[in-house]
Design goal:
heterodimer, A: 277 residues, alpha+beta, Alpha-Beta Plaits, five-stranded antiparallel sheet, 8 strands, B: mainly beta, eight-stranded mixed sheet, 1 helix, 22 strands, 47% strand
């Protein structure tokens, strides 16, 4: 499409638009907009440097986003002002529109408010591993509307803030150390004390098991297969996979070396009365 | 063992450290190194059987470098650096050691005692220029935690028995045992000026703050003084008593006031009652 024809159709005279006065005004407006955006970029840079060692990644991200949105709003207001658009009427209309939009966007507003609560309560931060409603993954961002997590099988999940506020959130990496509970069944045919001693020895020799706090051994209950024993192993968060794999291997090797039997269910069948052939 | 030496070209050398072995090979400016580690518990309980080698023919149990015809079947570190001479050096790890006493020791108020603990060193090679090659743990140490479950300190675990040496007491025969060349002997003095008995259970040692000395093939560190104060606090500092027990092989990471490094490092005394 020919731009000259388009401007003619809109009733804009290109020669008038590019006249000396208008051109000066246009250039000064663009200059002011560039200055505003550069000033906010510099502010963002300074804040980033300032907050780098003093604030969490989540707070830094929120402040950066706030600065960016503020820059756009200020630039927009200046542009409207330079174009001679009366903002009073716009704000009045925005108030009425706001009510209408508010009704239509209840869910979004709820998410925004939930997001503010999340930011103030800080149940988790960027980089934490959380479990919400069956989804487990690493928090990648905490935004006003939602929290984005990356699962361990590399899926992206967006969880609305309102869902998080309403649900139980398990933060798996809140504390530096954790306990891994392994429940094992010791066959009725095997010596329980020997089995517990073998478990303790395996835990003691595993480099990923912390010596302090001490390993927990709890005789948990009885089943048809044997006695269940809970082995609570303290470990560093980062050693989860190494610990689990090495302990499973170690327990299997220790039980095999000691000749322990794999627990098997027992079914006692009693025959009553005489059988006829 | 810890001195500089000039290795022959294309020859493997081996150091024996109570079970762990260190290997080095020079070819022009290319250096190859490897370490065969063992578990610290294995070392503490039953030393690894002695391997055949030059050091075993009537020589000391540990030592090196010994020329050896074949290299190790181990992952190698290859470094390119120009140097004629090289030395194996001990280095203290950045994470502190947590000494967990297998036996309970109670020190009554007003008493003073000492303990001797052997700290496993890490190893690296030092070039003539003062630069270092690699850093290895010759003894695999398990991690341990000091502090509460929300916040604490990651340490390297040293489970050991502590034998107190009382004032003016002759060293017990058990303490005069042969000193393994790979462990640095550290003396810890404890003065109990609190108003109650101190029960020794756990002790954190920030070994990076200790200098390491080598003499007669064995390693020693600076001493540590732990003062149990009347207000219930603990003050720990590095002490230098008597002449240095050999050549200084490693300087501490920090000096001065920061040597008062274990203010919170010792929960060793859970039963400070009445304070």
């Amino acid at each position: 499409m020919d731009p000259t024809k388009l401007l003619d159709g809109l009733g804009i005279d290109l020669s008038t638009l590019l006249s000396g006065k208008n051109l000066t005004s246009l250039i000064s407006t663009l200059g002011i907009l560039v200055l505003v955006l550069v000033a906010f970029a510099a502010l963002g840079f300074a804040l980033r440097r300032l907050l780098k060692a003093r604030a969490t990644a989540q707070t830094q991200m929120l402040i950066q986003k706030g600065v960016r949105y503020a820059a756009f709003i200020v630039a927009g207001l200046i542009l409207f002002d330079r174009l001679g658009i009366d903002l009073t009427a716009l704000f009045g209309a925005a108030g009425i529109a706001g009510i209408a939009v508010g009704f239509a966007a209840q869910t979004s507003i709820s998410n925004v408010i939930s997001g503010l609560f999340l930011v103030s309560e800080k149940p988790f931060a960027i980089g934490d591993v959380i479990e919400v409603g069956g989804a487990t993954g690493t928090v990648r961002s905490v935004d006003l509307l939602s929290v984005k997590i990356q699962t361990f099988d590399n899926r992206f999940i967006r969880i609305p803030n309102e869902t998080i506020i309403k649900s139980s959130v398990v933060n798996l990496t809140r504390y530096p150390i954790r306990r891994m509970d392994l429940t094992l069944t010791i066959s009725w045919d095997d010596d329980l004390d020997e089995a517990i001693a073998a478990l303790r020895k395996t835990a003691r020799e595993n480099l990923y098991v912390l010596d302090n706090p001490e390993t927990l051994v709890l005789i948990d209950g009885f089943t048809d297969k044997g006695v269940t024993v809970l082995l609570g192993l303290w470990f560093l968060q980062s050693d989860f996979l190494d610990l689990r794999n090495s302990m499973m291997r170690g327990i299997r090797a220790a039980f095999r070396a000691s000749g322990f039997h794999p627990p098997a269910g027992r079914l006692v069948v009693e025959s009553k009365g005489k059988t006829k052939t | 063992m810890w001195d500089f030496f000039e290795p022959a070209e294309r020859t493997w050398y081996r150091w024996e450290l109570d079970g762990a072995s260190v290997w080095l090979h020079k070819s022009g400016d290319e250096w190859r190194a490897a370490v065969d580690s063992i578990g610290f518990r294995q070392l503490a309980s039953a030393p690894k059987p002695v391997r055949s080698g030059p050091s075993r023919r009537g020589g000391p149990a540990t030592g090196g470098p010994f020329p050896t015809p074949k290299g190790p079947d181990l992952p190698l570190l290859i470094t390119v650096a120009r140097s004629r001479r090289i030395a194996l050096r001990p280095v203290m790890p950045l994470p502190p050691f947590l000494i967990a006493a297998n036996n309970e020791v109670a020190v009554m108020r007003g008493q003073e005692t000492s303990f001797i603990v052997d700290l496993p060193v890490f190893l690296r090679f030092e070039l003539e220029s003062g630069e270092f090659i690699g850093e290895w743990r010759p003894f695999a140490l398990s991690n341990t935690w000091f502090g509460d479950k929300e916040d604490g300190l990651l340490c390297l675990s040293i489970p050991t028995a502590l034998d107190p040496i009382c004032r003016d007491e002759e060293m017990d025969a058990s303490l005069a045992r042969p000193r393994p060349g790979s462990l640095a002997r550290c003396t810890i003095r404890l003065r109990n000026d609190t108003k109650s008995t101190l029960d020794l259970r756990l002790l954190v040692v920030h070994a990076e703050l200790l200098a390491v000395y080598g003499g007669a093939g064995v390693l020693s560190t600076d001493g540590i003084l732990v003062d149990g104060l009347p207000d219930g606090g603990l003050r720990t500092s590095v002490i230098h008593e008597g002449p240095p027990p050999g050549t200084r092989l490693l300087s501490p990471a920090r000096m001065g006031q920061s040597e008062f490094f274990m203010r919170r490092g010792a929960n060793f005394l859970r039963a400070i009652t009445g304070l």
